[in-house]
Amino acid sequence: MRAIHWRFGSLFWRLTLTYLIATLVAALAIECAITLMPLLRNFQQDNVSPLQALEKQGAARISTSIDNISVNSDEESLRYALALPLFDDIYRDEPRLTFVALFDHNGRLLTSISCTRSQLISLGSRRCTQQTQQKLSKLQTYRATQQTLRQINNPNRSSTPVIHHLPTGESLVSIPVQGSNKQTRVSLLVAVNGSLAPQNTYTMSPEQLIATLWSYWQPAGFYFIFLASALGTGAGMLISHNLTRRLHRIAQATQKWSQGEFQSAIHDDAHDELGQLSKDLNNMAEQLQMLLLTRGKLAIIEERTRLKRDLHDAVKQHLFAVQMQLSAGRVLFQKDATSSYHHLIEAEKLAVLAQQELATLIEALRPVALTDKNLIVALEEFCHAWSQRTAIMLSVHTEQIPPLTSAIEQAIFRVTQEALSNIARHSEAHNVSLELLATPGAITLNITDDGHGFNSSTVHAKKHSIGLQSMRERIEAIYGLFAIESTACGTSIKVHIPVAVQKEEQ
């Protein structure tokens, strides 16, 4: 498991990286939503006119100090306390202010200003005062300004703002500010350079948006993103560790099953999909084990049946004939010694045949040591021993063959055993030929004898046809072709095995 965890291309790290990315994206989305919601609320505000903004901001700032304003108030103090902050507040928005003045209810000028705080610092107080006086003198030359000042001096003036348009394109606005007694105490006179039509009072450029996000996110926003990413990575590592550990258990169990160790089981008590998969795989392993045991038992029963048949058809018949010859020799021993002698000779021949049959059966039952030698060597040794035992000439011709699977080698060897056994018992042949040839993508086995042959149409009704059927089934199990031809001059068996198909199936 440790090797899997630290291999960065593994499922563990891919799942962990997925959790990290998902958590990071979610944290960024939450931070953006939290930051942008107030901004969106500001963007969704209703459009207001600059005049309404002037009334709201001017009245809000002046009304807090209106009761303290009197004819004895210092002009410079009022400028810094009221006019300058008001000018700064309204100057940042469009349209821009160019002049602000305060008049009392008698029309006396309390204070005025035409520069911002930054301009006041850069130009100086004296220069700013001169600029304000020049602006006021210029405004007084206009008829609209004179008319506005007369309205301010009028005791019966209206409480609504008055707007006049100057020849310079500016708008002169007079806004009365009432005191706590609902009487007009101060009039605010402003000169606006721009349109007074309604507009959205809240705009933001992309640079301002980025700067706002940056100011909101540091440092608490970055701490939140880092903490969320760390928690997501930790959770991803825990979940990935549990998942890969369970998958590794399944992989270990299936590897042991491939080696035949079906007693190994997957231990997973979870009730999710992987737990159900583990249970299904355990059930499959048990069924495979039962199937292999059943096939093994069937193979044992089949081998016992064949052995019983061979003993009955060959050895038992020979021993019965030996018994008959010995019985005849015993009866004729005192009457006709010559006939008795011939019966003993026949009994001896039958005993030799029975011995040969038993040797053939024992050779077929003996395990073939193909793991210690290759197929060609094993075939040559078996054929040489068979020829010596049966006194039948056997010629063997083999070619260099490619490496074969154990299933193909066992099938070829068993078919050869069965074919030579049938030749020795039934064909009465004198010469046998065996060829093992290698063709492109296939192996060919040819076995031919010069015996008396048999009738293929009636052989299936006889007991020894089980041997032929067994050979056919062995070859077809490895996807090969089995063919047999028999005439009065001999029998020929041809086997064709496609090696490439068998390797893919294995």
TrEMBL record:
SMART domains: HAMP (SM00304), HATPase_c (SM00387). InterPro entries: HAMP_dom, HATPase_C_sf, HATPase_dom, Sensor_HK_TwoCompSys, Sig_transdc_His_kin_sub3_dim/P. It is found in: Membrane. Pfam families: HAMP, HATPase_c, HisKA_3. The keyword Transmembrane helix applies. Its main location: membrane. It comes from the Bacteria. PROSITE patterns: HAMP (PS50885). Keywords: Kinase, Membrane, Phosphoprotein, Transferase, Transmembrane, Transmembrane helix, Two-component regulatory system. The chain crosses the membrane at residues 220-239. Residues 241-293 form the HAMP domain. This is HAMP domain-containing protein. It comes from Dictyobacter formicarum.
